[in-house]
Amino acid sequence: MKNQIFGIKIHNYTKKQLHKIVLGIVRKGRSFSKIPVCIVTLNPEILLKAKHDQRYKKFLEQFDLRIADGFGIVFCSLFLKRQVIHRFAGADLAGVVIEEALKNKLKVALVMDKEGLSSKEELKFFLKEKFGQKKSNLCRIYLEDKESGEQEKLSKNTQVLFVGLGAPSQEEFILKNKEDLPDLRLAIGTGGTFDYWTKRTRRAPKLMRIFGFEWLWRVLILRGYSKKKQRIKRVFSAVFIFPIKYIFDNSK
To answer: How far apart are CA 190 and CA 150, in angstroms?
Structure first.
């Protein structure tokens, strides 16, 4: 089932349905018609950009699964259009995927920002602590320099790909590299998930996530005026600009 926002089709599955599809893909393409499957998680900020940038909109349409990851999307769809859109946090989905991938002894690649909060060593430590030495050995971590565009070459036998470069860099990376990975089954952009795993960033308490106040938590925990200012600007866009644009778009 698909819903549309600003002309972007969003796959609208229940949690149970999405897990079944994703786990089927990881286990070798069951529940989906093609391999590899590339997943993008959409938030209000991404949808606003796509509304005003046709090139970016077409770019997003190349992804096989487009999942809503933003309370604003759910709220607007429910209260302004009477449509239920299920929301899935990218961090939760990434956790499900990597657990199943390592359970099935698949080769996993994790691409992280060279200048990001978490280091390669910290991510390695998390994987070893979480999954044990044997399973963590199936993972290879790669660094990407977003400024220069330099990247470490991915192993050809990569089967599951996680890219934590933030939007739109991580989605561009996936589409650019997927054709060079013949064994790839699934690729997903993970945003700040690696920083949650390494505990460099704390996730909002569960209650705040349920009621859609994760954005407020992210503002509160940020240190430094410039970072807070940048985050507040993004929050304003998602919380105020997105609903206004959504209302006007659906009143035509």
So the answer is: 20
Q: What are the domain boundaries of the chain?
A: 2-197
125-151 pLDDT, tens per residue?
999 999 999 999 999 999 998 777 678
Q: What is the DSSP string of 81-103?
A: H-----B--HHHHHHHHHHHHHH
Q: From residue 108, how far is each of 21, 29, 130, 234 by CA, in Å?
A: 19, 16, 15, 32
pTM of the model: 0.89
Q: What is the pLDDT of residues 30-54, one digit of tens each?
A: 555 677 999 999 999 899 999 999 9
Beta strands (DSSP E) in 133-206 are 139-144, 160-164, 186-189
Long-range contacts of 239-248 (CB under 8 A, 24+ apart): 239/44, 239/72, 239/215, 241/48, 242/44, 242/45, 242/47, 242/48, 242/72, 242/76, 243/72, 243/75, 243/76, 243/80, 245/6, 245/48, 245/51, 246/5, 246/6, 246/76, 246/80, 247/80
| Amino acid making up residue 130 | K
